[in-house]
Amino acid sequence: MLEGTTRASDEVVATAPPDLVELTVEKIAVNAVMAGCRPEYLPWVIAAIEAVCNDTFNMHGLLATTMPVGPVLICNGPGTKAIGMNSGINVFGQGNRANLTIGRAVQLVIRNVGGGRPGEVDRATHGSPSKISFCFAEDEAGSPFRPLSVQRGIDEGVDAITVFAGEGPKCIVDQLARTPEQLIASLAEPLMGLHHRKLVVGFDVVLVVSPDHSRIFHEAKWSDVEVLEALYAATARPGAELVRGVGGIAEGVPEEFGEIPSLPKFRSDGILLAHAGGGAGLFSSMIGGWVNGEMGSNPVTVEVRR
Amino acid sequence: MVVSENHVLDPTAERAPATRTRLARPESLAGQTIGLLDISKPRGDVFLDEIERHLVEHGAKVHRYKKPTFTKPAPVDLRHEIATQCTLVIEALAD
Predict the structure, then answer these.
(1) Are A112 and B13 within 8 A, CB to CB?
(2) Of the candidates A34, A113, A294, which has its C-beta nearest B13's C-beta?
(3) Which of A7, A92, A204, B46 is exposed most, by the fewest CB atoms within 10 A?
(4) Confidence check: pLDDT of B95 > 90
(5) Which residues does chain B have within 8 Å of residue A64's beta carbon, measured at their own beta carbons?
């Protein structure tokens, strides 16, 4: 396994929560073997560990929260193809060793070395399959958008991982939209419902657009910039619709937000746009996030070093 | 006898759990300096206000502290402050 990286086996990569244990390359490699990784996956596992074990991503909080979230790993760059990752048919599902075992190795490191075990520090109400393994590659070749890593400041063609504190994926069906405007309006509806329709700004989302849906944007020459701008606009609502008590629903934003004419559902960088999935199916997918910002977790993107 | 060349590697942190004995319970609350740590969950202050009222009635002196966010461990400076200023601490979780 250690032949998969040029790093020394005793190099300390990060400090693993919750026990604050120094993580060496060797400890990560041992757990990568247990997860079923091939040696060439190891740099991706190490990069993911670097990305989650810091105050910005707050892996400690992800372990300790009762919400159903785990680190979702979104992989970019030519290296994803070189190690055989899946970005197409059944991208979130079974059948691909690299996708499954890279995510699993990260989880095992936190379980075995960090000591973050369910029923102990981890007392999640329901948990999530994203706490077992949730890792996929983006379909860059077929995408009208810039790769997620490039949108987040990494150079084109560089291998990178973005980590997102997310729950399981939810399918968004629209088989009738034929214009970008129609599709945006349709995607906005379930995005508004993230965690609760009347709770805004506090949670981010990854929107994974499928090839059948992205074709509609491609044909209209919409880039990721236009799509995101339209999504932010389409998910804003008058404060009066969202305050506590409206609609007979106790949940909502505090009374003082009621006068604001347009409250955004998402903070200004709160929608992460990615492209993946099989070539048939007018569905996209959304991955809801945990509490964002200083209070919770911010997505982190890191380069993958060999 | 054949000596195996296989090595078994431990996937865990290989740390032995530290064993500590509990401090003796105080005979009385009177004269104690008790830290109340609010972890910043909503309405945690309501609960701690009530606890403070009872503790003061029993003759204790109360110091209040607050974590910046409930999702992260208490900063080391805050832990040090509590450890040096208090004889007892109560950490509260509330929603």
Answers:
(1) yes
(2) A113
(3) B46
(4) no
(5) 71
Q: A127: left (phi > 0), else alpha (psi -120 to 50), else beta? A: left
Q: Which among A59, A50, A63 is positioned nearest to A23, based on CA atoms?
A: A50
Structure tokens given for A64: 């300790």
Q: How many domains does chain B have?
A: 1
**Interface contact flag, B11 A30, Cβ < 8 Å:** yes
Say what the pLDDT of residue B17 is: 74
Nearest Cα neighbor of B82 from B48, B39, B35, B40 is: B35
Tell me: ipTM over 0.85.
no
**Site of tokens 């490039």:** A150
Domain boundaries, position B58: 33-92
Cβ-Cβ contacts under 8 Å between A and B: the total is: 41
Q: How far is it, in rounded angstroms, from Cα A108 to Cα A111?
A: 5
- Report the Cα A67 to chain-centroid distance in Å: 15
Whether B68 maps to a domain, the answer reads: yes
Q: Where are the domains of chain A?
A: 2-303
Are the beta carbons of A65 and B71 separated by less than 8 Å?
yes
Question: Which residues in chain B have their CB less than 8 angstroms from residue A27's CB?
Answer: 11, 13
CB A82 within 8 A of CB A39: no
Q: Is the minimum CB–CB distance between B18 and chain A shorter than 8 Å?
A: no
Q: Which of A57, A54, A98, A93 is CA-nearest to residue A79? A: A98
pLDDT in tens, B18-70: 788 888 888 999 999 999 999 988 888 898 999 999 999 999 999 999 999 98
**Of A267, A140, A141, A270, which Cα lies nearest the Cα of A149?**
A140
Average per-residue pLDDT for chain A: 97
Q: DSSP code of A282?
A: S
Q: What is the rounded CA–CA span in Å between residue A268 and residue A249? A: 27
Given B11, B69, B72, which is nearest A31 (Cβ)? B11
pLDDT at A195 > cutoff 70: yes
Residue B61 lies in a domain: yes
Partners of residue A271 on adjacent β-strands: A205
